[in-house]
Write a structure and sequence with these properties.
The structure holds 2 protein chains of 2 kinds. In chain A, 4% of the residues lie in helices and 43% in strands. Chain A is built from 1 helix and 9 strands, in the order βββββββαββ. Chain A has one helix at residues 95-98, and strands at 9-12, 18-23, 35-40, 47-50, 64-69, 72-77, 86-93, 100-102, 106-110. The relative contact order of chain A is 0.34. By secondary structure, chain B is an all-beta fold. Chain B has strands at 3-7, 10-12, 18-25, 33-39, 45-51, 60-62, 70-75, 80-85, 94-101, 116-120. Chain B is globular and about 40 Å long. The chains are: A mainly beta, B mainly beta. The interface between A and B is medium-sized, with 25 and 20 residues.
C-alpha cells in the first residue's frame, strides 16, 4: 500500500482537461512544498513533469500544471493529447524519518 | 551526453546478494545526492534510499523496507553509485533505477537511468 493515494485511473478525450489527485497527510504533502509528478510509459523510466508542487522543468509543456491544497496535490493536463496516455506518479518529501514517498500511480487513458 | 546507466541486474536465488551500479556521465556527479528506486512488475515506484554528496557528509538514508539489507555507496572518482543488496527475497524482484537530486531540485528526480531488472527466484 502506497503512502500517497492516487486514483487508479482517469480518462479524457483529446482536447479536454483532466485533473488527478494525490492525497497524503500532514506528515508529507501537507507539510512540505516538495511534491513532484512523473510520467511513465510502459517499459520506460519515469520523467519529471512537475516539481515543488507547481514548477515545470525545462522542456515540459505548459499543458501540465500542478497545485496543492492541504494534504492533497493535483496534476492538471489541459488540451489532452494521445501522447499523454501514460502512468502518472506523485511523490513527496516526508520528513527526516521517511524521506520520500510515492503514490500508487494513476493510469491516464486518452479516449 | 548527460545520462545514468544502471547495470548488474540478473537472476539470483533467494538469500543471495547482488550489487548494482549506476554510472553517471555528463554532469558533476560529486555534487549530487544519488537515489535508488525500484518498481516491481505491474506495481508503482518505491524509493529505496539515497547517499548525500560529500559536501553534506556522504551520509545515507534508507526506506523502511530495505533498511539493514541494502547499502548504498558512491565512488566520486568513477562517478558511480552502487546498491549492495543482501539476503534477497522474492519480493525484491523489480526493475531498479537510480536518479539524482540535491542540486537543481530537492526531492525531485530529473534524470533516470534505463533501469536494471533483478529477478529473485530459485
Amino acid at each position: 500500500q502506497s503512502a500517497l493515494t492516487q486514483p487508479a485511473s482517469v480518462s479524457g478525450s483529446p482536447g479536454q482537461s483532466i485533473t488527478m489527485s494525490c492525497t497524503g497527510t500532514s506528515s508529507d504533502v501537507g507539510s512540505y512544498n516538495l511534491v513532484s509528478w512523473y510520467q511513465q510509459y510502459p517499459g520506460k523510466a519515469p520523467k519529471l513533469m512537475i516539481y515543488e508542487g507547481s514548477k515545470r522543468p525545462p522542456g515540459i509543456s505548459d499543458r501540465f500544471s500542478g497545485s496543492s491544497s492541504g494534504n492533497t496535490a493535483s496534476l492538471t493536463i489541459s488540451g489532452l493529447q494521445a501522447e499523454d496516455e501514460a502512468d502518472y506518479y506523485c511523490c513527496s518529501y516526508a520528513g527526516t524519518r521517511t524521506f520520500v514517498v510515492f503514490g500508487g500511480g494513476t493510469k491516464l487513458t486518452v479516449l | 551526453e548527460v545520462q545514468l546507466v544502471e547495470s548488474g541486474g540478473g537472476l539470483v536465488q533467494p538469500g543471495r546478494s547482488l550489487r548494482l551500479s549506476c554510472t553517471a556521465s555528463g554532469f558533476t556527479f560529486r555534487d549530487y545526492r544519488m537515489n535508488w528506486f525500484r518498481q516491481a512488475p505491474g506495481k508503482g515506484l518505491e524509493w529505496l534510499g539515497f547517499i548525500r554528496s560529500k559536501t553534506y557528509g556522504g551520509t545515507k538514508e534508507y526506506g523502511a523496507s530495505v533498511k539493514g539489507r541494502f547499502t548504498i555507496s558512491r565512488d566520486d572518482s568513477e562517478s558511480i553509485a552502487s546498491l549492495q543488496m543482501k539476503n534477497l527475497k522474492t519480493e525484491d524482484t523489480a526493475v531498479y533505477y537510480c536518479s539524482r537530486d540535491g542540486v537543481d531540485y530537492d526531492t525531485a528526480f530529473d534524470m533516470w537511468g534505463q533501469g536494471t531488472m533483478v529477478t529473485v527466484s530459485s
